[in-house]
Design goal:
The chain has 156 residues and is of the alpha+beta class. Among the domains are: 45 residues; 58 residues, SH3 type barrels (Roll). It contains one helix and six strands; from the N terminus they run H-E-E-E-E-E-E. Strand 1 and strand 2 form a beta hairpin. It starts with a helix and ends in a 55-residue tail after the last strand. The relative contact order is 0.07.
């Protein structure tokens, strides 16, 4: 009778392991492969004249497309860079408000117009603090003069 109960426990642990593997597949592996497929489709649909951003943060306009490499013009002097297609992070378009990424708009880490502040502008919740005054413990005491050890007399 004991052997029947122990056999059932092995079946339960096997089922639990299979359920965990299925859950991990749908939570980790499947979304990543879906994103990889979307990225590959975006890179294959690029055309000359499209503006892109590389994974290193360089913005540029596509000048020439080859099988696995793309030449982009970047900066005011239109410096030409040759990069691989896999170095392209996303495609960018110009709008009145500035550059907007065409990638999925689902990310919550993007800054909203309300959260963007001009340089030097203080937020409402930030208060000006008066400079702290030095306490006696912070003020350094003058260093004492170094004393040299007295020479030891040796008998010769």
């Amino acid at each position: 009778m004991n052997s029947l109960l122990s056999g059932g426990g092995n079946a339960q642990s096997l089922i639990i392991m299979l359920v965990l593997l299925v859950v991990m597949y749908f939570m980790l592996i499947r979304p990543q492969t879906k994103k990889d497929k979307e990225d590959k489709q975006m890179r294959n649909n690029l055309q000359v004249g499209d503006e892109i951003m590389t994974v290193g943060g360089i913005y540029g306009k596509i000048v020439r497309i080859r099988e696995d490499r793309i030449t982009i013009a970047s900066g005011a002097e239109k410096t030409k860079l040759e990069i691989t297609k896999t170095a392209i992070a996303n495609k960018v378009t110009d709008t009145k408000a500035g550059k907007v990424v065409e990638d999925d708009k689902k990310s919550s880490s993007a800054a909203s117009p309300k959260s963007i502040k001009k340089l030097g502008q203080k937020s409402e919740d930030t208060k000006e603090e008066a400079p702290a005054q030095e306490t006696p413990a912070q003020v350094e005491a003058p260093a004492e003069p170094e004393t040299q050890p007295e020479p030891v007399a040796t008998e010769e």
